[in-house]
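Q: I'm writing a short methods note and want an example of a predicted protein-small molecule complex. Could you take the sequence and the SMILES for fe (ii) ion and return the bound structure as tokens? Please keep the output block clean; save any remarks for afterwards.
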Amino acid sequence: MKLDSHLQPWRDYQLAKKFAWDPQQLDFRPDARDWLVLDDREQDVVLNLLSMFVKGEEAVASELAPLLFALGKIGNLREEEMFVSTQILDESVHVEFFHRWFDDVVREIVQHEKYYGENYRALFDDALPHALDALVSDHSPRAFARAFVCYHIVVEGTLAETGYHAIFLACERKNVLPGLRQGIENIKRDESRHIAYGIYALQRLIREDNALLEFVNEELNRLLPIALGVISEAVAPYGDNIPFGIDLMEMTEYAIDQFNKRLGAIERVLT
Ligand SMILES: [Fe+2]
Ligand SMILES: [Fe+2]
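A: Understood, no commentary inside the block.
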């Protein structure tokens, strides 16, 4: 089978190779100095958000294998398989980045679990693994659609995008933690390819069966409140005065805006 160099997953596969990066090359010494001048509440917000990224990136790294397996079973989607293989590496690099940051900057054991609320667990311990693990035995379009919606649109395209935006802005406003900011910039570039692939794949499925759009909408609307719940429960401990000028309303609006952009892109396939 000849590879189609015009397909988006193929082009993004090429970009993934071009923009590959190595967390070992980042310098975290300025972050270690900044860490000591942050107050307790500021440190806690950073630990809170980054703890969610640690488990989130670990979950998306290990949950991609069933997607790659299922794409192989469908056949004829070699370019997508090649792209997803780069995504698996990307997610492992993201996991490595956060572990290295905690080791070099915080330098003490952090109880990440204490930051995981009810909605966070519902998403990462239940919805995400269920949606992806189903692909081991179910290769129906609905099973693929459920996985892309949960993984690429809700977890990556709505929640992670919002979290990365918030932590990046927080550090930028205070002009601290440059190593963290650099890593997050790199991660955001990777994530934009991942999200674009999820939209591409959902468009392909809906083009093949227009009735799937209704199912996609149902799934999106089922999961959006959980994603928004993750945001509000994350900042709840800080009351009205969230460090770094983080604003719950602003974060929620940003998340809904991201969500609507993804939904609009998916729906455009039928126009
Ligand atoms: Fe990631
Ligand atoms: Fe990702």
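A: Remarks, as requested: The first helix runs from residue 8 to 18. The mean pLDDT is 97.
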